[in-house]
Amino acid sequence: MGATNGRGACQATLRILATTDLHMQILPYDYFADRAEQIGGLVHLADQITALRADQSALTLLFDNGDFLQGNPLADTLAQAGSAKTPHPMIAAFAALHYDAINLGNHEFNYGLPFLRQVLQDASCPVVCANVDWRDQAQIAQPFVILDRVIRCEDGHDHPLRIGVVGFLPPQITKWDKVKLADAIATCDIVEAAHRIVPQIKAAGADIIVALCHAGIDTADHRPGMENAAVPLAAVPGIDAILTGHTHEIFPDATRPATPYVDPVAGRIHGKPAVGAGFYGQALGAITLRLRRAADGWHVTNHTSAVLPAAPKVPDSAISARIKAGVQPAHSATLRQVRQPIARTLVPIHSYFARISPDLPSHILGQALIAHAASVLPANSLPIIAAVSPVRAGGLGGPSCYVAIPPGPIMRRDVCAIYPYADTPVIARRTGAELRAWLEQAVSGYHQIIPGRADQALLNPDFAGYVFDAFHGLTYTIDLTQPPRHDAAGRISAPAAARIIDLEHNGTPVRPEQCFAVVANSYRSFGGGGFPPIPMYDILAMSRQPVRDILTARVQRRGVVTAPIKAPWRFAPIPDTFVDFISAPDGRHHMTDRICNAGTQADGFTRYRLAL
């Protein structure tokens, strides 16, 4: 702790507030469904932030932990518009709420460095990120910053307090956005960077160090290049508090299993306070540090962590009205875009059962990617396979997070719902053996099923829907009586497990040495979701055109969606066996003869039962 001068020992309270993974959700509006939401968006946190800042019982600091710049059609509209005379609406909102510092997340890089640099030049607070090397160009973010503040102790006297703030993000950004970033920047391991930078922060005079870690809570064992490294980061000496993010999880969370290093009830990692505020502005993270000032500096004597659900005022307060006014022009422009009809469908297009049976959104996306690859590769080259996964399929996004397009016009927003990200396509050479290994990892999110039993849970909630890759251009069967080969972090837990059977191409078994051209998004191709990255020597082609633009063009050319899909995969039949899964209540309108409604849940989802 840094040395202090003046009066003797006293106590004070430092409150740390955090937002994370806002993904341009300034307003409580679902652009994919074109409807207002009851809760969510930074604007709905504005009043709580303002009230807590006005509370004189603590010195309050406010941080954002990354992924604020991309994630919905509003973000795309602003990125497509390019240079603007006024600050970016998210940066303006941060200024209106007087953020003390912001960290960079992986999605800040999706639109390229020039756009990121342009947006952040208007930032009214420091931008931090310690594990990015900006090489020969001017740095966009500082490794750390020292915030000089004055804190009032309980003896009624004010004292200086120096808070060191450091930021980290997943080092995989240079792979996930390789097409946009090329070799312009480099990254290093989060924990490695922390061991190097924390002593520098202490040497610069920090009394307290707060780590803004745009990474989630995984295992305690550090692995080089670890994506979700919050736990080993917390073990680094000198760090006093951790903000987590990236995985969209809430922390503290009493439903999360405890480990020797993670206390999910008290909100501690390695005994240090930590908080994860979810995503989309649905909650505000809060860490309260009780500090004691002594002759040798400041000491943390106690701490609490909490997640505060959004609680907006009605009618709008002055601050929320100001934020809304700042984003209104871009919001109106976005609505004009997403409401443009581009095609028609004669059948419902939905993702309610995307992990239960092949779904039409994935089929449409897969066909678009296959057509794109065919236009890029030489004629009569390798057979083309598309790897796609359901993006809007419930999970942490809740029961409204599904693709739901009724018969009628297909709007531009519907295409955004099928693929909301700014990823680009990558075409790579893969062998039959490599495809089989890929699929084994993709289907590890199912629980092992015991034949002859009913009411077994099908989906492992630790696995996000976007890791369930389906391969279009192949056919295969999934044997759920086999154990999963991988855990949720992508580690092999059962090497001998073999769920993929009857893997065929055009009715012929796929040979281990047989080669294919696989087209997938850049995130997956370069290791996103815990999958092994594809080596550069196997890359056949990369494009700067976003996957969503390719999908939009394909849907426009098709004009009308009519035909049922050719199912690439199925579950192996297991007689007299039933499994349960959850989906949106509206899924009841699309049940097959093998699916029945098993009752509603308190969280808004409906439980369904599938006969295997």
Provide an overview of this structure.
It is a single chain. This protein is of the alpha/beta class. Strands 8, 9, 11, 12, 13, 14, 15 and 16 form an 8-stranded mixed sheet that branches. It has a 6-stranded mixed sheet with strand order 6-5-4-1-17-18, with helices on one face. The longest helix has 21 residues, at about 320-340. The model is unreliable at about 1-5 (pLDDT under 50).
Question: Keyphrases for this structure?
Answer:
single chain, 612 residues, alpha/beta, eight-stranded mixed sheet, six-stranded mixed sheet, disordered N terminus
Please give a quick description of this structure.
The chain has 612 residues and is an alpha/beta fold. Helices cover 22% and strands 28% of the residues.
The biggest sheet amounts to: 8 strands, mixed
Give the total of beta strands.
Answer: 36
Helix/strand-derived class?
alpha/beta
State the helix count. Answer: 14
Helix and strand arrangement:
Blueprint: E1 10-19, E2 29-30, E3 35-36, H1 46-54, E4 59-64, H2 73-81, H3 89-96, E5 101-103, H4 113-120, E6 127-128, E7 132-133, E8 144-152, E9 158-168, H5 173-176, H6 178-181, E10 186-187, H7 190-203, E11 208-213, H8 230-234, E12 241-244, E13 250-251, E14 262-263, E15 268-269, E16 272-277, E17 283-294, E18 297-309, H9 318-338, E19 341-345, E20 349-350, H10 360-376, E21 384-388, E22 404-405, E23 408-411, H11 412-418, E24 425-431, H12 432-442, E25 456-457, E26 470-472, E27 475-478, E28 500-505, E29 508-509, E30 515-521, H13 522-525, E31 539-542, H14 547-558, E32 560-561, E33 569-571, E34 578-583, E35 595-600, E36 606-611
Parallel strand pairs: 1-4, 4-5, 5-6, 9-11, 11-12, 12-16, 19-32, 21-30, 25-34, 27-33
Antiparallel strand pairs: 1-17, 2-3, 7-10, 8-9, 13-16, 14-15, 15-16, 17-18, 19-23, 20-22, 21-26, 24-30, 24-31, 27-28, 28-29, 34-36, 35-36
